[in-house]
Amino acid sequence: MVLETIKKYCNSLTKYSRYKTREVFIGDVPLGGNNPIRIQSMTTTNTMDTKATVEQSIRMIKAGCDYIRITAPSLNEAKNLENIKKELRLRGYKTPIIADIHFTPNAAEIAARIVEKVRINPGNYADKKKFQIIEYTDKEYNTELERIREKFVPLIKICKEYGTAMRIGTNHGSLSDRIMSRYGDTPLGMVESALEFARICEDYNYYNIVFSMKSSNPQVMVQAYRLLVQKMEEEGMNYPIHLGVTEAGDGEDGRIKSSVGIGTLLEDGIGDTIRVSLTEEPEHEPPVAILLSNRYTERTPHKEIPHIDESPKDPFNYEKFSTFEVAGIGGATVPKVVADFSSTGIKSYDGLKSVGLNYNQQTDKWSINEISADLLYLGKHPLPFDPPNSIKVIYDFDYWDSLKNKSAGFPYFQSVENFNNSTNHSFVLNFVEIKIEDVFSQSIRKIKNNPTVVFVVTTSNKHGMAEQRRIFFENYKNQIRNPVIIKREYRDVNNEELLLYASTDFGALLIDGFGDGLWLTMPNNEKANMHEFINRTLFGILQATRTRISKTEYIACPSCGRTLFDLVEITNKIRRRTEHLKGVKIAIMGCIVNGPGEMADADYGYVGSGPNRITLYRGKEIVKRNVPSEDAVDELINLIKEDNRWSEPL
After folding, report:
1. CA distance linking residue 121 with residue 139, whole number of Å
2. pLDDT in tens, 340-360
3. Which residue in 5, 281, 414, 444 has a CA-CA distance of 20 to 30 Å to 138?
4. Residue 395 maps to a domain
């Protein structure tokens, strides 16, 4: 395969550079080229309710949307886009409108005459999706493609005539049976699904195209977009790229998951427009997307990072970078979380509650939960009591060296030189800070693969993720297998910025299989509950990257005009009943569009199938149809109990 020799998917792995795409006009707001990253969201109102849709669109525009997307599931909704557009224009809003189309080519053809852009999903636009595995011969496959061409060409001609742009938006959860049979449920299948439609467009000299590769799994999403760029380069294409993690969920989890996927790609200069999909009101989405994109407006100039042409490991397939285990860190163990108390120290047992460690004085026992920190960094502060047996305490080397009982903790060396020059080390576990210059120095050879050493990778570079990744690349090339904890320091940011930036910086490395632990610090920050927030954020990042599962995961789509129930209310209801079930993945879908497909990535599915009717799934399999809404959550829980995956909340 080509992928074995060509691994390049961005301009540079070490110098921030926006990937240059062609300019596509969407009304008067061009996308791609030298234009800024555009922000968009999608209405959740009934498209037939003109007033409600217009009012919500205005709230979205005021929140920062450059484009407004509206679902048009049938002919009537497509026709009503004209009334919505007219009312918005009368009220002074010229923001381009995008029609979101699934299943109905005739609705797309109507919408393309009205709005500035139409979005089609190749998995369900004139293609078959019955979750059947069929072995297609080349002749049968091409016959299906010709059938699709006949259905698709009328839309292309209308778009050309009216100057309408088109997004060819693949969803991981809605690949057609034909694509699934040939390519499987893979990033390559997602890319080929879109390229088939793009090639038909080019046959008719239509180039007003935008691509997207969306998935609820950030790892799959990132791989698909990287592969898309690589395949476009092969075929001489350079279409703008729409970024999004579909069904990200709500609250902190939704923001973390979106940042892991979208931020990872933005770090490499990929992406021309963003939609953050949250199970919340749509006006909550643009501010998050704006925070993510604005981070790159001043990314250059940054400190130079040693150049490397290609990733030494495959960027299109996940592979955990293999390290050996040191005292429960690295190897086959889950990534560890460090809690940094070096600024304040810990005065009492209650000081550890914020990182999930609870001491019961009556029983003289510690309670450790699923999001309890694994390591405590105290700098030069003594710990006035014995920690839980499973928790490791880290001290600065000079303080540790002064301790009579050196088994009370483990030393942290500020540099490789400090470790090499010291005559005193822990015979069990030593933490050694390394920077970019260390991996190119002779001193690293003295410590390389020392069985007691865990590296702590740090950076002060404005392009920090790329610099830390470059360290991992060099370790990978030189077969340095010591476990590595990723450490990042953030200053002058608020909680939301910290959440988004840390999710991007840590998540991008974890998605590529790098990192055996996370360490986040905010020097001189003594905000109330900050330790709790940081600890929760780090475990959320590990959950989003699927490198350490500590809680129930919800794959919840953002509401839209197709939704058949109140998604926010139902998601919260299901969360309240099931959030104690560690490792169970529940998909909550408002309609059938992406439901069964995205359920391939979930254990159970709760899907709207009609007014006040729910269909329940186990994976892709329908278990119960047309369950009354008032009974559906109880029936979902009964299904989990049938599979012996239920436990009573504590």
Report:
1. 24
2. 999 989 999 999 999 999 999
3. 5
4. yes
